[in-house]
Amino acid sequence: MEKGIIGRKIGMTQLFAENGSVVPVTVVEVGPCVVCQKKTVENDGYDAVQLGFDDVREKLVTKPRKGHFDKAQVAYKRVLREFKLDNSAELNIGDIIKADVFADGDVVDVTGISKGKGYQGTVKRLGFHRQPTSHGTSGYHRHQGSMGANSDPSRVMKGKGMPGHMGSVQVTVQNLNVVKVDAENNLIAVKGAVPGPNGGLLVIKSAVKKRA
């Protein structure tokens, strides 16, 4: 069943399994998310719902978005995301989706914006080898070295790895196990690491490439 929810990364900790082994987990505060809009096959050509997350003051909402929320008669939200859920047709505007939509043992994909690393060289950014640290190399130990081809085609090929901005892009980590769900406090503990800094926005969905 296709499930999804919006959340915010709290941080990493560890839990103990029944056999005593330590499980590293990321704690995510998810929901409660409210259905702000409903897409239907008749009107839009497909079934989906738009979920809102994180309450925000009216002063911080733009006029078009304010009208969107007022039409749905829901509280103003900071984040809006669309989900194609299996039960989209059953949901109605104003319905609340909480952490209990997931259960222990579910396999999920987590999407977020990775940490920005700023401007980085090719060694850190792309894993290039460094230059020799002796025999005449001076001041170029972490430079790229030769980038061109031979006399033909006499140019640097398109797509060549270069220094540049690193991080701050959308990243999806697939096939993470839900270790624990705390529906009362709207918390989900996911095994392993997820993209982004603490406090970063995350989208959690059912895994699309679920392993057997």
The description of the largest β-sheet is: 6 strands, antiparallel, barrel
Strands across the major sheet, in which order? 1-2-11-10-7-12
CATH fold call of the largest domain = Elongation Factor Tu (Ef-tu), domain 3
CATH superfamily of the largest domain: Translation factors
Element order, helices and strands?
EEEHEHEEEEHEEEE
Which second-level CATH architecture of the largest domain applies?
Beta Barrel
Shape: extended
The separation of the N and C termini measures: 15 Å
Return Rg in Å: 23 Å
CATH class of the largest domain: Mainly Beta
Can you describe what's shown?
With 212 residues, the chain is mainly beta. It contains 3 helices and 12 strands; from the N terminus they run βββαβαββββαββββ. It has 2 domains: 4-117 and 170-206, Beta Barrel (Elongation Factor Tu (Ef-tu), domain 3), CATH 2.40.30; 123-166, no CATH class. 9% of the residues lie in helices and 39% in strands. The longest helix is centred in the N-terminal third of the chain and has 10 residues, at 63-72.
